[in-house]
Design goal:
Layout: H1 35-44, E1 57-60, E2 63-66
Antiparallel strand pairs: 1-2
Length: 67
């Protein structure tokens, strides 16, 4: 679920105080054509990046899946 905070702060469901860092335990994976370009753009726009870019590999049966 993606959600956004409204200008008034009203929300349907609040799991905790609305203070940075938002997301507490939420993990989203979004497919993009060029993650490095998106990362550079976010930095250029002043976004705070909490973790560096990384590649993770997971085994599912005999198949390795990379994200």
């Amino acid at each position: 679920m993606l959600d956004r905070r409204s200008a008034t702060g009203a929300r349907d469901w609040v799991a905790g105080p609305l203070e940075p860092p938002f997301g507490r335990g939420l993990n989203l994976q979004v497919d993009v054509a060029d993650a490095e370009a998106l990362h550079r753009r976010c930095l250029a726009e002043g976004a705070t990046i909490f973790w560096p870019l990384e590649t993770k590999w997971y085994r599912r049966d005999r198949v390795l899946l990379g994200v």
